[in-house]
Amino acid sequence: MEAIQQIVSGDSLEEAAACAAQVLARNAVIVYPTETLYGLGVNALLPESLEKLIALKRRALQKGIILLIRNSQEARKFVSDLTPQAKRLMDLFWPGPLTLIVQANAQVPDLLLGEGGTVAMRVSSHPFCQLLLAKIPFPITSTSANLSGQTNLLKSKEIVETFSAQVELIILDQQERNGKPSTVLDVTGQHYKLIREGMITQEEIDAKIA
């Protein structure tokens, strides 16, 4: 059976978020829009859902998966420690296209973890993501909607062709995407380390935290 598809904007965002919440509660996979790329989402706290996602994406287990959370307060549920600079970056850039790598605590499933027991997390500014996360009691995964090692899928047609037979729900929007993902910073130390430059440049970061 092919996935249900919804194109969202304005008032339809609420209905789509409610539908997505129901699908995620069944431990199924959704494709959803963010302000950067389209993402593949599952309940990020259930190992069986994470296994389903990893198999779908054909992703190496040791890579870790980004955790999409409601706000900076929720981040504290999943980290063992936050440095002053990490807290400042959250205040300055969340919600937005900035992913922070932090030291995870025992609440984070092993399948989400990156090197050294870390977890990557961010708060999306996309209105669909904000509505969805307000409706569910768990964070979701935020890994790009493509097969591991392949180019990012930016157009609705590409998303549907690749995933309509493999996921239960595809949420699309009409936003033009330039292919840039979120910027990734490792903030496990006292000073951040740039892992990937995406929509936010290093110059923009340095200008704000100077």
Give the name of the CATH architecture: Alpha-Beta Complex
Please tell me the overall pLDDT: 93
**Beta-strand fraction estimate:** 15-25%
> Going by CATH, what is the homologous superfamily?
DHBP synthase
CA radius of gyration is 16 Å
Reported by name, the CATH topology is DHBP synthase
Counted by DSSP, the helix tally is 7
Main sheet properties: 7 strands, mixed
- Give the domain tally: 1
In total, the number of strands is 12
Structural class: alpha/beta
In CATH's first tier, which class applies?
A: Alpha Beta
Q: What is the CA–CA distance across the termini? A: 53 Å
| Helical proportion, percent range | 25-40%
Low-confidence stretches: none
Shape, please?
Answer: globular
- From N to C, what is the helix and strand string? EHEEHEHEHEEHEEHEEEH
Question: What does this molecule look like?
Answer:
The chain has 210 residues and is an alpha/beta fold. It has a single domain, classed as DHBP synthase. It is 30% helix and 21% strand. Strands 4, 5, 6, 7, 8, 11 and 12 form a 7-stranded mixed β-sheet that branches. The longest helix is centred in the first third of the chain and has 14 residues. The chain is globular, with a radius of gyration of 16 Å. The mean pLDDT is 93.
